[in-house]
Write a structure and sequence with these properties.
Elements lengths: L1 H12 L22 H9 L22 E3 L2 H10 L3 H4 L2 E3 L30 H22 L1
Parallel strand pairs: 1-2
Helix pairs in contact: 1-5, 2-5
Length: 146
Amino acid sequence: MAAAVLHNRAEARWPGQIIVSSSGTSNYHIGDGAHPSSQRTWRNAGYTYDHTAKQFTARSFESQDLILTMDLSNRAMVLTAAKSENDRQRVFLLRQFDPELQNIDPVSREANLLQVPDPWGEEIEAYQEVLHMIESAVAGLLNEIR
């Protein structure tokens, strides 16, 4: 969902200037499409996006300017894969950009508030709640990029 929102909103502001890709830290679903509930949620909100699962690796740093993670465990895995301080400085939790949460240090005790929960297996309302979190964070991110 985060890639769908970021892709659509960035494209609306700066057509063709920002490339958004999505990957996970595990290899469980490589080659699969988006989860049906995720896809239904972003489509119902007016976003279009095609997703095929791939895995983040250390080589991903070579082609990515900014790496946004959804939770602390994925952030830790991505940071472990970093080969340099330059790599580490491009890794953020997406919700660090949420205007209401920007004062939270991602290495503090409050960092758990910056996580985007995985709604897998939950009712559609959980997906909609996650979409709202993502939309707030993406709005903040795009304002920061501006």
